Automatic annotation (TrEMBL), chain A:
Pfam family, one: TctC
PROSITE patterns xref list: PROKAR_LIPOPROTEIN (PS51257)
Similarity section: Belongs to the UPF0065 (bug) family.
Organism from which the protein derives: Oceanobacillus polygoni
Source superkingdom: Bacteria
Signal peptide: 1-22
PANTHER family in UniProt: TRICARBOXYLATE-BINDING PROTEIN (PTHR42928), UPF0065 PROTEIN YFLP (PTHR42928:SF3)
Origin organism lineage: Bacteria, Bacillati, Bacillota, Bacilli, Bacillales
UniProt entry keywords in alphabetical sequence: Signal
Protein name: Tricarboxylic transport membrane protein
InterPro entries in UniProt: BUG, Bug_dom1
TrEMBL record, chain B:
Domain DUF112: 20-439
Organism: Oceanobacillus polygoni
The keyword Electron transport is annotated on this UniProt entry: no
Keywords: Membrane, Transmembrane, Transmembrane helix
Transmembrane segments: 12-36, 42-69, 109-128, 134-155, 167-184, 204-224, 259-281, 322-342, 354-375, 387-407, 414-442, 462-484
Name of this chain's protein: Tricarboxylic transport membrane protein
Entry keyword Transmembrane: yes
Classification via Pfam families: TctA (PF01970)
From TrEMBL, chain C:
Source organism superkingdom: Bacteria
Keyword annotations: Membrane, Transmembrane, Transmembrane helix
Stored InterPro entries: DUF1468
Keyword Transmembrane helix: yes
Domain DUF1468: 10-140
Official protein name in the record: Tricarboxylic transport membrane protein
TM region positions: 7-25, 37-55, 76-108, 114-131
Organism from which the protein derives: Oceanobacillus polygoni
């Protein structure tokens, strides 16, 4: 029996040893082209936001033939992204890139990952949607200012709901507005509805304010006359007909912009040529009609940024959000 | 009258040649994916998204819906035959389905599962059609206090899930509840009991625990008894025909749990898994001979099977008429709808009547197809049990590990699976029932989350529970379900 | 010492450890019931239940019993599973699964080596192709080029 066992073990070891011979030493020139099929990692489960984004992008790339190599999506879920980032950093292969969004910044600020946003390489941003503040149609407030004034006077009357945990997008955007309005942090009661994003408990009157993102769910409830959208947290009014009537927080005197951006990242230590290659592919994706149609379906706005601009943009995001996280005692 | 025209239009879509073809493709793919261990509705729908790209939205949705309920239909097979549930929503099916198969009545068990699924799915589709416009209101009628009371009612079943000692059942439940506190706390964002390991941040997956505690623990038992002669009768599949008496026995649970499952399915916070557990424990409490449950009771098999399928149909209410996903699965389905250019919400029924009613009408055909597809195949599928035992053990082990691997694509979960397998075996030997562990794990998260939400919203006032008739009724029911069985026990002793 | 007393001691220790870990959780100031609320209650429950079990006389005949011969085979299967987990990603799904099925069935006493070989090859290959080609679910390719 023992002999068989030793035999088996040695067979396993031998076979593994064989698998590790082909290590690639690539010769970096100004031009870089992938030599193998590309892995697009979604650091989340099948069906989640990062996964959907990864799948639609690779679909466009494949159908429009923006790359010579094929591209396939793989899922590395866990740790709100941390497992996927660890995987990326471990293999450090320029043929492995991943999808990301604002959530990455919040997850990293909360200390979920050992990596920071600048340990890896921002390649390009492709789309964005925006934060919103909504109340029921029959609610007494018709503008963000009215809501915030009443909130400040009678904080005990109010509960806010969102789909993210404290220290996540929906929470931090409301805290940011509230701080600007001079509301005390301890006066804000916020609940997280992870399964349905807070919409059901807004509709049935359990909570008074919904802090969320401008997705189809919110827009459809608005069209059906169930809710009022008091503010969109974008710089300027949005362009699409269905959403252009929503006032921004900025025009109501609040200096708060919250963008849920979605982009593509690579591992740390990418060369300029590699970054340039992917940036170019992503630019083609962003400019394609096929991706424009997808943006419309998901209610995303066009927001293309190349690597340099994207890096600077994320730096500012991290800076402003970490102030709020620190205030909340959630910075790790 | 308006919705009547819509329904007619829907039937026209569903009964067109193309409509029937896409339903058939959908349920076929769904069943195949569902039968595979570890692959449940979420994966089934996710892999279909790229395929539907560019298709006509109505037909694509008809197909997706077929994939959804087809995969739930299919995943009961491995639960019954191998004790390896393919999806979270069919874990409760193993409780009585597997013992039934072990008794040499695998054919009957699979037939009951198929018929119960058919009834649940069809009755729910009828409800959907009759009441769709008013159901949207019901779907949002539950707030945190109501959800908490509902989960508490489910939890009170712990004592009824124990066979012997109730101390052991409670310990098992507390351990299950502790297991679900691992990970990021939804209300504060604090990571609890993760010990710095990122793999624990999103918590332990329910399937890892279910496969470990049930399937692996069972495999250990099979290994020890692999030469036992009495096992030969297990490869006996038995007849798939049900007697009049069998039908009589399952007709009660099927009618009850079509309704219960449907209602729980409508609530966006609950979903098919919770529905199946609620139905199982309810049926056990209603039963005159609860001691048969867990040993191959036909009622104990029919109840969760009916309920799961009714609930998955019911979950289309919040999805289509509110645009609110209530579970991981419907969230993926919502994503799929957006890819197709469909905007679900309160206006969908008036703006796209042929799509809305077409999907519902297609569910009748889909469920009939599933029944026709599954019943004749049962004798062939059940032949799995004729595989020589050592080979079957290896294959079951492989299937469990494959099922767990494709959840997270990391080997970490495989080590966890092994851990829970060992735990399951130890618990079984020491007479700690696994069912309360599983029940507490399923309900614990929602119970805690909603309790804290309710009190946060009420600023700490307990009136949020006591001042609301629905909550009060549910709480009283919970109290009764704890007190009544004990009274009965006391009476017996006297 | 009775079997229930033996079981209750590790449970008691687990409860104490769990309560300590709950107390050590970071505090969040802006919530009514913090992250440690439920865990403290659960830990308390387990503490009480383990004490009750200590003095309980039910199910005294329960024990983990595995015959020497069975212990050996179960140990081997567990070791095989561990090996499978370790080698799954480097070797790839097809090879490690094929080896696992063949060896595990063989060690459990299946001596029809021809059928065993066929099954242990066909099973992983079918699933691998099905998953990677048709379902677009990636399984570890490992050393194989496809």
């Amino acid at each position: 029996m023992r002999k068989i066992f030793i035999l088996i073990v040695s067979m396993f070891i031998l076979l593994t040893a064989c698998s590790q011979t082909a290590s690639t030493v690539s010769n970096e020139d100004k031009e870089w082209k992938p030599k193998r099929p590309i892995e697009m990692v979604a650091p989340a489960r099948a069906g989640g936001g990062w996964d959907t984004f990864a799948r639609v992008i690779s679909n466009v790339i494949m159908e429009q033939e923006f790359m010579e190599q094929s591209i396939g999506v793989i899922n590395k879920p866990g740790g709100t992204g941390a497992v996927g980032w660890a995987y990326i950093q471990k293999i450090q292969d320029p043929h492995t890139i991943f999808t990301t969004s604002t959530t990455m910044v919040f997850s990293m600020l909360a200390g979920n990952s050992q990596y920071s946003w600048d340990d890896m390489t921002p390649i390009a941003n492709l789309a964005a949607d925006y934060g919103i503040i909504a109340v029921r149609e029959d609610a007494p407030w018709d503008s963000l200012t009215e809501l915030m004034d009443d909130f400040k006077e009678n904080p005990e009357k109010f509960t806010v709901a969102g789909g993210n945990t404290p220290g996540g997008f929906d929470h931090v955007q409301f805290i940011s507005l509230a701080m600007e309005a001079g509301i005390q942090l301890e006066d804000i009661s916020y609940v997280t509805d992870q399964s349905s994003g807070g919409l059901p408990i807004l509709l049935n009157g359990t909570v008074d304010v919904l802090s969320s993102k401008l997705g189809s769910g919110v827009v459809e409830q608005y069209r059906a006359g169930e809710i009022k959208i008091l503010a969109v947290l974008s710089e300027e009014r949005l362009e699409a007909d269905s959403v252009s009537q929503f006032p921004t927080a900025v025009e109501q005197g609040y200096d708060t912009v919250f963008i849920n951006w979605r982009g593509v990242y690579g591992p740390g230590g990418m060369t300029e040529a590699q970054v340039a290659y992917y940036e170019d592919v992503m630019r083609q994706v962003s400019e394609s009609d096929q991706f424009a149609a997808i943006r419309d379906q998901f209610g995303w706005e066009e927001m293309f940024m190349g690597s340099e601009e994207y890096t600077e943009f994320i730096r500012q995001e991290v800076e402003s959000n970490s102030k709020i996280m620190e205030e909340l005692g959630l910075l790790n | 009258m308006n919705s009547f025209n819509g329904i007619i239009e829907g039937f026209q879509v569903a009964f067109s040649l193309e409509g029937m073809l896409f339903v058939a493709i959908g349920v076929l793919i769904g069943t195949v994916i569902g039968i595979m261990p570890g692959l449940g509705p979420i994966t089934a729908i996710a892999v279909m998204i790229p395929i539907t790209y560019g298709m006509d939205a109505t037909f694509a949705l008809v197909m997706m819906a077929g994939v959804y309920y087809g995969s739930i239909f299919g995943s009961s097979t491995s639960s019954i035959l191998l004790n390896t549930p393919g999806a979270a929503s069919t874990v409760a099916t193993t409780f009585d389905g597997y013992p039934l198969a072990q008794r040499g009545e695998a054919g009957k068990a699979l037939a009951i599962a198929a018929i119960a699924s058919f009834v649940g799915g069809t009755v729910a589709a009828i409800f959907l059609m009759l009441f769709a416009p008013i159901l949207a209101g019901l779907a949002v009628s539950f707030g945190p206090a109501e959800y908490f009371a509902l989960m508490l009612l489910g939890m009170t079943a712990i004592s009824s899930l124990s066979e012997g000692s109730s101390i052991r059942a409670f310990i098992s439940a507390v351990l299950g509840f502790m297991a679900v506190t691992i990970g990021i706390d939804s209300q504060t964002g604090t990571s609890r009991f993760t010990f710095g390991n990122v793999n624990f941040l999103e918590g332990i997956d329910f399937l890892v625990i279910a496969l470990g505690l049930f399937a692996l623990a069972e495999v250990t038992y099979l290994i020890i008894n692999r030469r036992d002669r009495s096992f030969e009768k297990i490869s006996n599949i038995g007849s798939i025909r049900l007697s009049k008496k069998d039908f009589k026995e399952i007709s009660g649970p099927m009618s009850r749990h079509s309704v219960l499952g449907f209602i729980i399915g409508i609530l966006p916070g609950a979903g098919a898994t919770i529905a199946s557990f609620m139905s199982y424990v309810t049926e056990k409490r209603l039963s005159k001979n609860p001691e048969e449950f867990g040993k191959g009771s036909l009622k104990g098999l029919a109840a969760p099977e009916t309920s799961t399928n009714a609930a998955s149909t019911g979950s289309f209410v919040p999805l289509l008429s509110l645009g609110i996903p209530g579970s991981g699965t419907t969230a993926v389905l919502l994503g799929a709808l957006l890819v197709l250019g469909v905007q679900p919400g309160p206006l969908l029924v008036s703006e796209e009547p042929s799509l809305f009613w077409g999907v519902i009408a297609s569910m009748y055909i889909g469920n009939i197809m599933l029944l026709i597809l599954n019943l004749p195949l049962i004798p062939y599928i059940a032949k799995v049990l004729k595989i020589p035992r050592p080979l079957l053990i290896s294959l079951v082990l492989t299937l469990c590990m494959m099922g767990v691997y494709v959840i997270s694509f990391s080997t970490f979960d495989l080590y966890l699976l092994l851990f829970f397998g060992v735990l399951g075996y130890v618990m079984k030997s020491l007479r700690f029932p696994a069912a309360p562990f599983i029940l507490a794990f399923v309900l614990g998260n929602l119970l805690e989350e909603n309790f804290r939400m309710a009190l946060t919203i009420s600023n700490g006032s307990w009136m949020v529970f006591l001042g609301n008739p629905v909550v009060l009724a549910l709480l009283l029911l919970s109290l009764l379900s704890i007190v009544l069985p004990n009274l009965r026990r006391v009476k017996k002793k006297i | 010492m009775t079997i229930n007393q033996k079981i209750s001691i590790p449970l008691f220790l687990l409860a104490v450890a769990y309560i300590i870990a709950s107390i050590l959780l970071p505090k969040y100031d802006y919530i009514l019931i913090d992250a440690d609320g439920f865990p403290l209650i659960l830990g308390g429950f387990l503490l009480v239940l383990s004490v009750l079990l200590f003095f309980n006389k039910e199910e005294e005949d329960a024990r983990v019993f595995i015959a020497r011969e069975d212990l050996k085979i179960i140990g081997i299967v567990v070791a095989l599973i561990l090996l499978y987990i370790v080698f799954l990603e480097p070797l790839g799904f097809v090879i490690s699964t094929a080896l696992f099925i063949f060896i595990c069935s063989f060690l459990l006493g299946y001596r029809n080596n021809i059928v065993n070989s066929i099954v242990s090859l066909l099973f992983p290959i079918t699933f691998y192709l099905l998953f990677t080609r048709y379902l677009m679910i990636s399984l570890p390719a490992g050393v194989l080029p496809f």
